[in-house]
Specification:
Number of helices: 4
Structural class: alpha+beta
Order of helices and strands: HEHHEEHE
Shape: elongated
Distance between the termini: 33 Å
Radius of gyration: 16 Å
């Protein structure tokens, strides 16, 4: 069992390592897997960068993951409407830890996304995303 002192030391070490996106305060839980969708020829570069920054900014990692006690991955499927609203958010794979699932879900719900690119013809976009806590993505 880890002591509080050793947990704080480990957190401090991880924070010094850095390496995550700007605005993420934790040393863990900052890896979001690839987004899966068909851009249908539209340029999503700025949209994806904004999406990632918003989701990371709103991803409040539970303390159990911060201190290395919880790990797992959680996957969601959701729809982005033409105006950038998130709808039809659906859990695809649970981490088996409700706090981790809620943190990822809340980051998606509270993110303010840009409208879909003008050269994207459909009225909405359905995406899948996976959040990782203290583990690497599984090989597909």
């Amino acid at each position: 069992e880890r002591s509080i002192a050793s947990s704080l030391h480990e957190l401090d070490r991880r924070l010094r390592l850095g390496g995550g996106p700007p605005g993420v305060e934790s040393g863990v839980g900052r890896q979001m897997g690839p987004l899966f969708f068909d851009p249908q020829g539209a340029d999503f570069t700025a949209w994806i960068n904004h999406f990632k920054n918003e989701v990371y900014r709103n991803w409040v990692v539970p303390q159990s993951a911060l201190f290395g006690y919880a790990k797992g991955q959680v996957s969601f499927e959701f729809t982005v409407e033409r105006d950038g609203r998130v709808s039809a958010l659906r859990l695809i794979e649970s981490s088996a830890t409700p706090a981790l699932d809620r943190a990822a879900q809340n980051s998606l719900r509270s993110s303010r996304l840009l409208p879909l690119p003008g050269d994207f013809a459909p009225v909405s976009l359905t995406l899948q995303v996976t959040f990782y806590y203290n583990q690497e993505p599984r090989d597909a």
